[in-house]
Design goal:
The protein is mainly α. The chain has one domain (25-144). 67% of the residues lie in helices and 0% in strands. It contains 5 helices and no strands. It has helices spanning 15-19, 26-41, 48-60, 64-95, 105-143. The longest helix has 39 residues, at 105-143. The chain is elongated and about 70 Å long. The chain starts with 14 loop residues before the first helix and ends in a 14-residue tail after the last helix.
């Protein structure tokens, strides 16, 4: 016997927002991890964070604002490998400072205090925008599907 949730039956559910407003659910982390993997695998493109967030938001099957949250979590997870690589580079810099130039401190401070935060904000921000778009595409597809039985204006997004 298959029991459909109110969302799958085409009825908007308010209990979804109440039930999951405080914590991140396990499925949300799973979908965010899938989006992060997409972001990392497609990192050679300029819009991988946007695609990863969109996939995470679409898979989450929630309203667009919640999709943005899932996309941002996806971006935060995708930043972890970058942090590991930067940590390795920082360790190498500290072990051989004379090989990279004698002063080096100002450049390192600019990189650590300006460039990394901007890069992380860029990745997480694009992932959040992608999550919003992905969730919006899911909700738009659900509201225009023939199974829903009601026009878009009557469904109460």
């Amino acid at each position: 016997m298959v029991v459909l949730s109110p969302l799958e039956q085409g009825v908007p559910s308010t209990s979804l927002a109440v039930r999951s407003s405080g914590m991140v659910e396990r499925t949300e982390l799973k979908n965010a991890l899938i989006g992060a993997v997409v972001t990392i695998v497609l990192s050679f493109t300029g819009f991988s964070a946007l695609l990863g967030g969109a996939i995470a938001g679409y898979l989450q099957k929630v309203p667009p604002k919640r999709g943005a949250k899932t996309g941002a979590i996806s971006g935060g997870i995708a930043v972890v490998p970058i942090l590991l690589v930067f940590g390795l580079g920082f360790g190498l810099f500290l072990s051989q400072p004379s090989a990279l130039g004698l002063p080096g401190g100002v450049e390192l401070a600019i990189i650590l205090l300006v460039m990394f935060p901007l890069l992380f904000a860029w990745i997480i921000g694009l992932s959040a925008v992608g999550g919003y778009v992905g969730a919006y595409l899911y909700w738009d597809a659900q509201s225009t599907s023939p199974e829903s039985g009601a026009p878009r204006e009557q469904q109460g997004r």
